Amino acid sequence: MTWGQWVGDQLDAVRAAGQWRAVRTLEGGGPEFTLEDGRRVVSFASNDYLGLTQHPAVIAAATQALARYGAGSGSARLVVGARPPHAELETALAAWRGAEAALVFPSGFVTNLSVLSVFGAGTRIVSDERNHASIIDGARLARGEVAVYRHGDVEHAAHLVATAPGRALVVSDTVFSMDGDVAPVAALARLCARTGAMLVLDDAHAVFDLPAVEPDVVCLRVGTLSKTLGSVGGFVTGRRDFIDLLINRARPWIFTTASAPADMAAATAAIGVISGPEGAALRRRLRSHVDAVRPGHPSPIIPVIMGDEDRTVAAADALLARGLLVPAIRPPTVAPGSSRLRVALSAAHTETQIRELVAALRS
User: Fold this and answer.
1) Rounded to an integer, what distance in angstroms lies between the CA atom of residue 94 and that of residue 128?
2) C-alpha–C-alpha distance, residues 256 and 59, integer Å
3) Contact predicate 302/345, CB 8 Å
4) In angstroms, how far is CA 278 from the centroid of its own chain?
5) Residue 138's CATH number
6) What Cα–Cα distance (Å) separates residue 144 from each residue in 86, 120, 140?
7) Which of 165, 247, 298, 335 has the smallest count of CB within 10 Å of its CB?
8) Are 77 and 38 members of one domain?
9) Are 33 and 54 in contact (CB under 8 A)?
10) Residues 251, 170: one domain?
11) Per the domain annotation, does 3 fall within a domain?
């Protein structure tokens, strides 16, 4: 079989499974966009939870850094050095998260690959079954022993930690990206404090209150610049010596060109916005939107479980016909039989847009 034949067979298998995907091109800054055919739609697909991709202060900071430092960094930071926006952002991130140090990465995915490949080597990695793909791939890259616990089941996680032959690392999303539910962070932290296991939390989708972890827990917290902060990239915060080890051992960071200075400046400006009264107001507005769609839900990610893939795609198409872009999430992103509409809300949505969404979901 030639490579061309193999690729053709693989594509045919995707089509036969009803899982063909293609990329849309949308014009606009959000949450309103224009499709390629000229239709105007309101997006409920973006993780721009506070609408900061369009904030004037964030855009201005990026524009100024672009003019001063150029479009890119040129190489990896250990080769070409950092630019002031990298250091300024890491200082701001550490202060924002109450940590000794921070390190930024080109993406959240690369952050998890780096953290888990370094600290998971030679370790039992105890991972929630619904963790993000970047955590799953990071655990694989570590070449340690991976033990998966039932979703949110701390007793199961404790058993896997207790039976580990050596060091153990517990890793979990804080807010799960497809269900929008919150991990039992306090209980996981108690487990790690009691057993000496390390805790790694991925806070990428945590936009409301960030669950605290006691200072006696050995913990690294991963985050992204591309969701709450409206820029692009990832980061990790924690003890200074742990960050130093990543700088010296994390191959995905060492051998990757550094993030663009403009992205770093944008994220620093976003931290300034969300740390003040405006940020509090944006979170209140987002909280109100969530309660309008699903009262009491803990995050702006609201799944509408349909089950059947064809039914889910048809529902997404019907919403798009009404000018509402809500993605259909299907296997392999979620488990078979759990296809869903993934509604992602933003403080940038208007009350009218939220009412239109609620009416369309009920129809």
Assistant:
1) 26
2) 25
3) yes
4) 23
5) 3.40.640.10
6) 31, 6, 7
7) 165
8) no
9) no
10) yes
11) no
Question: Taking the chain, what is the end-to-end CA distance rounded to the nearest angstrom?
Answer: 49
pLDDT digits (tens, 9 = 90+) for 220-265: 999 999 999 999 999 999 999 999 999 999 999 999 999 999 999 9
Examine the pLDDT at 19 and tell me if it is beyond 90.
no
**Angstrom distance (rounded) from CA 206 to CA 201:** 11
Instruction: Round to whole Å and give the CA distance between 60 and 66.
Output: 10
pTM, entire model: 0.95
- What is the identity of the amino acid at 257? T
Is 104 found in the same domain as 43? no
In a domain, 286, yes or no: no
Note whether 267 and 304 are same-domain residues.
no
Chain center to CA of 276:
23
Cβ atoms of 171 and 126 closer than 8 Å: yes
| Amino acid code (one letter) for 115 | V
Residue 287 lies in a domain: no
* Assigned domain for 264 exists: yes
Burial class (CB in 10 A: 0-12, 13-18, 19+), 284: exposed
For the chain, the domain total comes to 2
Residues facing 342 on adjacent strands: 303
Burial of 212 (0-12, 13-18, 19+ CB in 10 A): exposed
Q: Nearest-CA neighbor of 340 among 360, 361, 313?
A: 313
In the chain, the percentage of residues whose pLDDT exceeds 70 is 100
Residue 356 has a pLDDT of 98
Q: For strand 124-128 and strand 168-173, is the pairing parallel, antiparallel, or unpaired?
A: parallel
Contacts of 219 (CB under 8 A, 6+ apart): 189, 192, 198, 199, 200, 201, 213, 238
**Quick one: tokens of 152?**
């949110």
The domain of 354 spans 23-49+300-362
Distance CA 41, CA 320 (A): 7
User: How does the average pLDDT of the chain come out, rounded?
Assistant: 96
Q: Which amino acid is at 255?
A: F
Residues near 361 by beta carbon (within 8 Å), at least 6 away in sequence: 293, 304, 319, 341, 343
Element containing residue 15 per DSSP (H, E): helix 3-16
